[in-house]
Design a protein that fits this description.
two-stranded antiparallel ribbon; elongated; RHH_dom; single chain
């Protein structure tokens, strides 16, 4: 059985490193980088510089999770906001 984890080499700040992630995380990371008009290497470098502990693969997974949680929260907030009618002025 083939492992769902894919190891890829990436250059971060001029240094080549390998990162092991599931395909779903690689695809999500590419989508986020594209949406921010960054290269995959630049986005991973940003994630790497912001992490305080753990390995890079874990930091990337947590970054992707946090990103999509934010997207889901924004979508829920917008949906709720659209359902709330505008306040009527008080009747004198």
């Amino acid at each position: 059985m083939k492992s769902p984890v894919v190891k890829r080499s990436i250059v971060i700040a001029g240094h080549k490193t390998s990162v092991s992630l599931e395909d779903a995380f690689w695809e999500a990371l590419k989508e986020i980088a594209s949406g921010r008009r960054l290269t995959l290497s630049d986005l991973v470098a940003t994630i790497d510089s912001a992490r305080t502990q753990g390995n890079l693969s874990s930091a990337i997974r947590l970054f992707v999770l946090d990103y999509y949680r934010g997207v889901a929260t924004a979508a829920r907030t917008q949906a709720v906001g659209e359902r709330i009618p505008a306040a009527s002025p008080p009747v004198a």
